From TrEMBL, chain A:
Pfam families hit by this protein: ABC_membrane, ABC_tran
Sorted UniProt keywords: ATP-binding, Cell membrane, Membrane, Nucleotide-binding, Transmembrane, Transmembrane helix, Transport
Subcellular localization, as worded in the UniProt entry: Cell membrane
Gene3D superfamilies on file: ABC transporter type 1, transmembrane domain, P-loop containing nucleotide triphosphate hydrolases
ABC transmembrane type-1 domain sequence ranges: 37-319
Protein name stated in the entry: ATP-binding cassette, subfamily B
Automatic annotation (TrEMBL), chain B:
Classification via InterPro entries: AAA+_ATPase, ABC1_TM_dom, ABC1_TM_sf, ABC_transporter-like_ATP-bd, ABC_transporter-like_CS, P-loop_NTPase, Type_1_exporter
Name the record gives this protein: ATP-binding cassette, subfamily B
Stretches of the chain forming a coiled coil according to its record: none
CDD domains, alphabetized: ABC_6TM_Rv0194_D2_like (cd18546)
Domain ABC transmembrane type-1 positions: 76-361
Residue span, ABC transporter domain: 400-634
Originating species: Streptomyces aidingensis
Pfam families listed in its UniProt record: ABC_membrane, ABC_tran
Membrane topology: Multi-pass membrane protein
Classification of source organism: Bacteria, Bacillati, Actinomycetota, Actinomycetes, Kitasatosporales
Parts of the chain that traverse the membrane: 75-100, 112-137, 197-214
The family this protein is said to belong to: Belongs to the ABC transporter superfamily. Lipid exporter (TC 3.A.1.106) family.
GO CC annotation terms, alphabetical: plasma membrane
Length: 610, 641
């Protein structure tokens, strides 16, 4: 999982315009534009103060000091003080102007991306590792805030400073001015070139850190296997090689950095030295005053930072543009159209669906359903191919199939976590595609194979299934999933915090809470993915008994791997190679289908069921 | 220079992007202090519910010293380079003073010697400062990278050496963030903070010294100005510490919420949580926005105040100096140089905020790392290792004896009271019992993931503690429920059991376990990268790969800890077949809650509350009628109809 393997971001580096990328931030910046522009103006004035400072100094030297004018010296000193205070206060004012508004911009962008990813289809999440999304919602956004607060403003400010400063220098003395200004443009160019090389090296070291992190992660997550097989050495070797490679990249980076710093700090000194010598000669021959030389040197020194910074300010613009691209890469993912195309069309579809007569089409019905992953390369066979299945109202259907036969994919279609490629699924005669997702999900409750608990209390986790349910319903749901005993034994009972931030529960306990979550709202349709797999024999038997009552009047589809789970169902559907191969009762299929018997007993034909 | 703080105040991009993704405890990756509690825990905790493990008070400093020691020559060289470089840099204004006071009059008098001297010295200083800076940056990078390499290695080796008991309690997220974000924050300190700090300190000392040399009054004034500045820094440090940690816990809650939503996206969507989540997220996000804004403002306040002090002092000193020049007590050039030096003196002030930020977060990280490194591995390597006696071809299994073994956690709490047990060579023994009965502990003692508190575990008469890890792993292999695949191909993952295995051996192992079909159906068969797209491998299939590893490793003792629970029935049967054929004659300890696995064993142990309460052949125990195993078996038979 090296950084370079993150599929989504490494699309061939398309030609992009930094400016165009950054302009996309405008909708977020717009609400704070007045403050941001004011702040930039204030910054220019404040920066101007640091240029005024040397001028005042020069004036003091040439005027009052030379004349021995005490009052003039006092006035000059006060002026210096005023300029200094103004500089400090103006810079402070600038920061105050943008601090809260830009924190607001960052928060607004973060809230938007959160809202967006929450609603993106599951297929998107299968493709994007959560770490990638997280880094776009945190690191990249922080970077953008910094960019708006600092480089953006100072690109303008420093450019102004350089122009004004050069004007001042030339005004003070044309020859000296030219000598000092000579390196400005080359220096900016050199900085840019170095920055580019440096960012390549940085990128490489980031990738290597990513690889190293992967090795560390794996050797921690797979510690049982490494210890179990005594494989410390090979992992350690991989780790050592990677960390040494990282070290040499870092050293190369430091050489680049050293070179650029040497140029940035050294080069202007040469010209300043030249200007100083020239200045001394001209003061000596009387063509300029000592005050002018002092002021000149001070202005030249004050201009150093704006010049030096141009290179990395431009590089930061580049980085900010990348961050913007990364952010909008996620935001540009289209949300699935949620509601039926138009109310009229929805109603028409509903009417059409209802036409065959409610009785015949009741329950859950798959009609010629085909599914192919949206990102599957063309030419691969569909995962599900022409599924026809009817679960009658109140009936429980077990779904049995070998590993990789598409069971989990099939049940994800019902709550529209994936969308059918063709065909349709109806609930009590209504095509789920004609309902909004929210409506579908209101009718269908799901217990997933991987039971996920959120950082909240047990009660909140269970009631997630039905907010309006009361404590009677909650107690009933816990009883059905046989979770009431262990929940009562938790430190704070149902109010105990669980999930990442709370108590960790065993797999079986989590599975039982996930089951409770599915049944708490008494949904008309229930989809359960191997709901008892993590339970021990005793608990399994008790959950089964309680679940049977719930299933009696619920239309349910239950993925099953074991006979005990199959026995919850009225009928069984055998899924094989993406098609429904057979439907019948457990005993019928045991007798009629070799594959079914193999899957549930492990025996091939002829052998007795033990 | 007055505006660099904001930009520098963040960890650099390289640190802010969780490049590996994954479960790297992002809550902790977010910032310096864990925010949760600061200091040491109150009450009963042993440090595991927090990030701080017990470590001697001076452990962080000792750790740092031990890391620096091997590089002390390099560090010294870097220091010398920096001292020389700063001398060259700070010569500038002094040369301006000399030029104005000496060279100008001399040149006016036709003597160009001083001008030439100033020109040459200035040139030498310019070249010197550039070259020396290059030297300093590369040399200090060498020291710094060497130190980080060493630190990373130490954390890694420590994590590998510590027992599984430790791993279970410390959690993988924390270990990963120790070796990533905590190392990173130390690195940030050295890259950005320490280097800056050293440069700032050296230049401040030089400048003050030069000012004193130019004029003792100017120097004194500059020194005096440090009193209010020091007070300011102290106040800022106190307030910012609180603010920074508040901000990092605020972003941590945002990150946890974000991550939790993404990892549970299926239930989130299926149970229509989006709107509720939006609201909860808004609360957390708003909180972070407020705290974040407050922190930035605090920083602004510091920068403005320090600037105000600095500019006031500069104006005051210049004013005073101007009077003295007018009175003739001070040379004009000295005043000019003094003013230039004062501007430089206060330039680095705002960077203090950033350095403090890095410093605080690095100290917190170092503390956590030191705590981790201070843990003693409780399953040490033997001092005088022995080898196992060779096993005869006709008897591949080994006899295992638990001799007066007992086990309790270090925190107290006895898991297994004293017992003795012999597993005969070549026999399969199944262990059943409720959760928490001690089954897994028994298995882990045999795999030497733990050492017994009392008694010995012997394999063919040799104490497990006397075997080296490779020797032990040739003897005992344990397969657990969680089948983790390492990045790499399927073949490489199977070959983990025997690194020098040929492709034929790998395929034979996969065939024997019934994994060959699904592997060949993968896009690139055995060469499919398990982390790439298209390598969608289900839990059951991962488990089969894990079993293929065992077949290849060919141990004399096999332990299966709930290893078949994620397999479907055909998978389970395949494993049983493989045990009966490929691993025939091995000693096996099987923990399972599926009775189908248990009834094929030679012998069954029923455990309850750490004790073995039933022991016998499956048939014997079933015939017994009123034992626990017989009850279980009846329930299971009923479920099969």
């Amino acid at each position: 999982m090296s950084a370079s393997a993150h599929a989504p971001e490494d699309a061939p580096a398309r030609k992009r315009s930094v400016v165009r990328s950054l302009l996309r931030l405008w909708p977020y910046v717009r609400p704070v534009r007045v403050r941001l522009f004011t702040a930039a103006g204030v910054a220019i004035v404040a920066a101007g103060m640091s240029l005024v400072f040397p001028l005042v100094l020069g004036w003091i030297v040439d005027g009052p000091i030379a004349d021995g004018d005490t009052g003039g010296v006092l006035a000059g000193g006060l002026l210096l003080l005023v300029v200094g205070l103004a500089e400090a206060l103006l810079f402070g004012f600038r920061r105050w102007l943008v601090a809260r508004p830009l924190a607001g911009v960052e928060a607004a962008m973060r809230a938007d991306i959160y809202r967006h990813v929450q609603r993106l289809p599951v297929a998107f999440h299968d493709r994007w590792p959560s770490g990638q999304l997280l880094s776009r919602a945190t690191g990249d956004l922080t970077q953008l805030r910094m960019f708006l607060a600092f480089p953006l403003t100072f690109l303008v400010v420093n450019a102004t400073m350089i122009v004004v400063g050069c004007g001042l220098l030339l005004h003070q003395d044309r020859v000296l001015g030219l000598v000092v200004i000579a390196p400005v443009i080359p220096l900016i160019v050199v900085c840019l070139v170095f920055e580019r090389h440096y960012s390549v090296a940085s990128r490489r070291s980031q990738d290597q850190i990513g690889d190293l992190t992967t090795v560390v992660e794996e050797s921690v997550l797979g510690i049982r296997i490494i210890k179990g097989f005594g494989r410390h050495r090979s992992q350690a070797r991989a780790f050592r090689e990677l960390s040494q490679r990282l070290r040499s990249t870092e050293l190369r980076k430091s050489r680049l950095l050293g070179a650029i710093m040497a140029v940035i700090y050294g080069l202007p000194e040469f010209f300043l030295g030249g200007a100083l010598v020239l200045g001394v000669l001209r003061v000596a021959d009387g063509s300029i005053t000592a005050g002018t030389l002092v002021a000149f040197m001070a202005v030249a020194l004050a201009l150093r930072w704006p010049v030096e910074s141009m290179g990395f300010l431009l590089a930061l613009c580049n980085e900010a543009a990348t961050a913007t691209d990364r952010y909008f890469e996620v935001m540009d993912e289209p949300l699935p159209a949620d509601d039926p195309p138009s109310p009229a069309a929805g109603a028409a579809a509903r009417a059409a669906a209802a036409s065959p007569g409610p009785g015949a089409a009741g329950g859950m019905r798959f009609e010629n359903v085909t599914f192919r992953f949206p990102d599957a390369p063309p030419g691969t066979p569909p995962v599900l191919d022409g599924i026809d299945l009817h679960i009658r109202p109140g009936e429980t259907m077990a779904l049995v199939g070998g590993t990789g036969s598409g069971k989990t994919t099939l049940i994800n279609l019902v709550p529209r976590l994936h969308e059918v490629t063709s065909g349709r699924i109806t609930l009590d005669g209504e095509d789920i595609a004609a309902l909004s997702r929210a409506q579908v999900r209101q009718r269908v409750a799901v217990a997933f194979e991987e039971p996920t608990l959120f950082s909240a209390t047990v009660r909140e986790n269970v009631l997630m299934g039905a907010e309006e349910a009361g404590s009677r319903e909650f107690a009933r749901a816990l009883r059905v999933s046989q979770a009431d005993d262990f929940v009562a034994a938790l430190p704070a009972g149902p109010e105990t915090q669980v999930g990442e931030q709370g108590m960790s529960l065993s797999g079986g306990q989590r599975q039982r809470l996930a089951l409770a979550r599915a049944v708490v709202g008494r949904p008309p349709f229930l989809v359960l993915d191997d709901p008892l797999s993590a339970l021990d024999v005793h608990t399994e038997a008790r959950v089964e008994a309680a679940l049977r009552e719930v299933l009696a009047d619920t239309t349910a589809l239950v993925v099953a791997h074991r006979p005990s789970t199959v026995l919850l169902a009225d009928r069984v559907a055998l899924l094989s190679g993406g098609r429904i191969a057979a439907v019948g009762t457990h005993n019928e299929l045991l007798n009629s289908s070799d594959e079914y018997r193999y899957l549930l007993t492990g025996e091939t034909r002829g052998a007795l069921v033990r | 220079m007055s505006t660099t703080v904001e930009e520098k105040d963040r960890p650099r991009q390289s640190g802010a992007t969780p490049s590996g993704g994954g479960p790297a405890g992002p809550a902790e990756a977010a910032g310096p202090a864990p925010g949760t509690g600061g200091g040491t825990a109150a009450g009963e905790s042993d440090g595991f519910d927090q990030d701080l493990l017990p470590a001697p008070r001076n452990a962080p400093r000792r750790l740092l010293l031990s890391l620096v020691r091997p590089h002390r020559a390099t560090v010294a060289l870097a220091a010398v380079l920096l001292l020389l470089q700063q001398a060259a840099v700070q010569a500038g204004p002094l040369l301006v003073a000399i030029a104005i006071d000496r060279a100008v009059p001399a040149a006016a008098g036709g003597d160009y010697g001083p001008v030439t001297a100033v020109a040459l010295v200035y040139l030498a200083c310019a070249a010197g400062s550039g070259v020396l800076l290059y030297g300093f940056i590369t040399v200090s990078a060498r020291a710094c990278q060497g130190l980080l390499l060493d630190l990373r290695g130490r954390i890694y080796r420590q994590a590998q050496a510590l027992s599984l008991d430790f791993h279970d309690r410390y959690t993988s997220g924390r270990l990963i963030s120790r070796s990533t974000s905590d190392v990173q924050s130390l690195r940030d300190l050295m890259d950005e903070g320490l280097q800056e700090l050293v440069i700032v300190t050296v230049s401040v000392v030089y400048i003050v010294a030069l000012l004193c040399y130019l004029d003792i009054g100017l120097g004194g004034a500059a020194l005096f100005s440090f009193v209010p500045l020091a007070l300011l820094v102290r106040g800022f440090r106190r307030r910012s510490g609180v603010l920074f940690s508040r901000r990092s816990s605020a972003i941590a809650t945002v990150i946890v919420k974000f991550n939790e939503t993404l990892n549970g996206i299926r239930p989130v969507q299926a149970f229509r949580r989006e709107r509720r989540n939006d609201e909860e997220f808004r609360t957390l996000n708003k909180h972070h926005e407020r705290v974040n804004g407050g922190t930035i403002l605090e920083l602004a306040r510091f920068v403005v105040t320090s600037r105000l002090i600095a500019n006031t002092v500069t104006a005051g000193v210049v004013l005073w100096g101007a009077y003295r020049v007018a009175e003739g007590e001070l040379a004009l050039g000295v005043l000019a140089a003094g003013a230039l030096y004062l501007r430089r003196l206060y330039d680095p002030l705002d960077r203090f905020a950033m350095i403090l930020n890095y410093y605080e977060s690095a100290t917190a990280s170092l503390h956590k790392i030191a705590g981790l490194l201070a843990q003693r591995p409780d399953v040490p390597e033997p001092e005088r290792p022995v080898t196992l006696p060779g096993r005869p071809a006709d008897r591949p299994g080994r006899e295992v004896v638990f001799e007066d073994v007992s086990f309790s956690y270090r925190t107290g709490g006895e898991v297994l009271p004293r017992f003795s047990l012999t597993l005969r060579a070549g026999e399969t023994t199944a262990v059943v019992g409720a959760t928490g009965a001690g089954k897994s502990t028994l298995a882990k003692l045999l795999a030497r993931f733990y050492d017994p508190t009392g008694g010995r575990v012997l394999m063919d008469g040799t104490d497990l503690r006397e075997l080296t890890t490779p020797e032990l792993r040739r003897g005992v292999v344990m397969v657990t429920q969680e089948a983790f695949l390492f990045s790499g191909t399927v073949a490489e993952n199977i070959a983990l059991g025997k690194p020098d295995a040929t492709r034929e051996e790998i395929e034979a192992a996969a065939r024997a376990i019934g994994a060959h079909e699904f592997i060949t159906a993968l896009p690139e068969g055995y060469d499919t990268d398990v982390r790439k797209r298209g390598g969608r491998i289900s839990a059951g299939q991962r488990q089969l790969v894990a079993f293929a590893r065992v077949l290849l490793a060919d141990p004399s003792v096999v332990i299966l800890d709930e290893a078949t629970s994620s397999l479907d029935i055909p998978g389970e049967k395949a494993v049983q077949r493989a045990m009966a054929t490929a691993l025939r004659g091995r000693t096996a300890l099987v923990i399972a809650h599926r009775l189908s696995t248990v009834v094929t064993a030679h012998r069954v142990l029923v455990m309850s509350a750490g004790r073995i309460i039933e022991d016998g052949s499956p048939a014997g125990l079933i015939a017994d009628g009123d034992g626990q195993f017989s009850d279980l078996h009846r329930a299971w038979r009923d479920s099969l109809v």
